[in-house]
Structure prediction request, 347 residues.
Amino acid sequence: MDIDRIDQIIDRHQCEASSLIQILLDIQSENHWLSKEALTRVGEKLQVPFTRIQHIATFYKAFSLVPKGRHEVHICVGTACHVRGATRILDTVKDVTGIMPGETDMDLKFSLETVNCLGCCALGPVVEIDGKVHGKMSPGETADVLKNYE
Amino acid sequence: MSDFHLEIDGNKVGVKEGETILEAAQQAGIYIPTLCHHEKLEPFGGCRMCIVEVESRGRTKLVVSCVYPAEAGLVVRTRSEKIDRIRKTILELLMAHAPDSPPLVALAKEYGANKDQFEKESSFCIHCGLCVRYCEEVKKNYAVGFVDRGVRKEISFIPEIAAKVCNDCKECFPLCPTSYLQATFVLTESLAFPTVP
Prediction:
């Protein structure tokens, strides 16, 4: 993500220091992560000390300071999904993508995270990929769904 | 001149509008233990050591005196069985992080806190925020800040800024109750300071 694009996002928020989190969220959703250069640029433009930006960027789980894959896979391992076999789903995804929860694969295709509840326990076990919810998954179906992503 | 009066440990104390209970007590020469308080800095309310019992309109409640504004007619007790017990537990929890910190050891003696009460989690930082706030509010250097949250919260120097300003300042070093700050600085210096071109 180049500096011009970051400036555009900052300008969209009128360079307001109070919009810091919103700006970081916009950069995060476009770029999938917050690079040091991006954070430095935001700090310069908004006149906010880097320590504060760093504090905020590390505080919220929505922000990532390391590159994320193009597709974010969230696997629910909450109680309901767990008893309906989330562990086996997770194992399948680990096998297919070759990464552990919290990691990103080498060609930045997938990032894998476990979550504790997506709020749709009746659909368990639930897998969420790029915000799209896949319910009542079996290990086989999960592997098939993952093949659809490039 | 004082605007109104309140009672601390049986003494009538005059306070000005906007002062906290802690400030009122300190001016009256009444000692309340603190760890995160510093006169040049904004109140933080982080360590909870300055907790006191406050009685107003017939009700007693526990408040943190460094952030609680003094009100007319308050009755404040700085020591009681309950407060001592709370301070003891706070100390024991902090000592799971920094068992040999001099200010903690001194307070532990006073309140009978056992430094081995809880399993050791030697992160050495007790999150008093003195270094972070001093750098921010007094020096305006913003060289050190907090990162992460909850149990993983820690202080972190920004190497680019620290390399420029810290060696000539180091005013936060004596503030740290555990010397963890110094360790963090040395670590940052050796690992991450930008190399001189």
In short: The first strand of chain B starts at residue 4 and ends at 8.
